[in-house]
Amino acid sequence: MTTHNAPTVRTVHTVHASPLGDLLLTGAESPAGGLTLTSLSLPGQRGAPAARPEDRDDRPFAEAHRQLDAYFAGRRTRFDLPLSGTGSPFQRAVWRALDDIPYGTTTSYGELAVRLGVPRAEIRAVGRALGANPLLLLRPCHRVIGSDGSLRGYAGGIEHKRRLLTHEGALQPTLL
């Protein structure tokens, strides 16, 4: 009897230095060498994955590093990377809808719910799905704000949300 083993996927991570601090990127690397990003977390993010030092491998993340550097330098407004966040079908639908929010703009939780066909009474479900987004920044949940213009509910922290929206020109810098 012959046994065929399925090719194994290797989980790897890297750290990307950014103006927000060190970003933790994790990904699944196929035996053929292709990488699919599974998470990007910000410093201090609640629910961020833990990374084991022995799983660090910067090589497969070269394109992600290049695109993140271009974003923070103001030369990139969209990411073109293979993404795979684990979530329910509803969560994945909400995360895909984030890709349609243009750089430098914001939308409200209610507007996003309307686009998704979510009844008004279920808007909180949209907020919960955004809170579970494993690919912060790459899937731009920071562009979703309260209907009154307030910055709310960002797993990476409200100050990071403010800095990202200011970087993108959606908010004016404030003088302290």
Give descriptors for this structure.
alpha+beta, DNA repair, 2 domains, two-stranded parallel sheet, Arc Repressor Mutant, subunit A, globular, EC 2.1.1.63, 176 residues
Sequence stretches where pLDDT stays below 50 over 5 or more residues = none
How many domains comprise the coordinates?
2
**Termini separation (Å)?**
72 Å
Q: What is the assigned CATH homologous superfamily of the largest domain?
A: Winged helix-like DNA-binding domain superfamily/Winged helix DNA-binding domain
SSE run: EEEHHEHHEH
**In one word, what is the shape?**
globular
Major sheet, described briefly?
Answer: 3 strands, antiparallel
Number of strands: 5
CATH class (first level) name of the largest domain: Mainly Alpha
Give the spatial strand order of the biggest sheet: 1-2-3
Over the alpha carbons, how many angstroms does the gyration radius reach? Answer: 17 Å
- Percent helix among the residues? 25-40%
CATH fold descriptor of the largest domain: Arc Repressor Mutant, subunit A
Please work out how many helical segments DSSP would assign: 5
CATH architecture type of the largest domain? Orthogonal Bundle
List the helices and strands and how they pair.
Elements lengths: L9 E9 L2 E9 L5 E7 L20 H11 L16 H10 L8 E2 H8 L6 H9 L12 E2 L12 H10 L9
Parallel strand pairs: 4-5
Antiparallel strand pairs: 1-2, 2-3
Helix pairs in contact: 2-4, 3-4
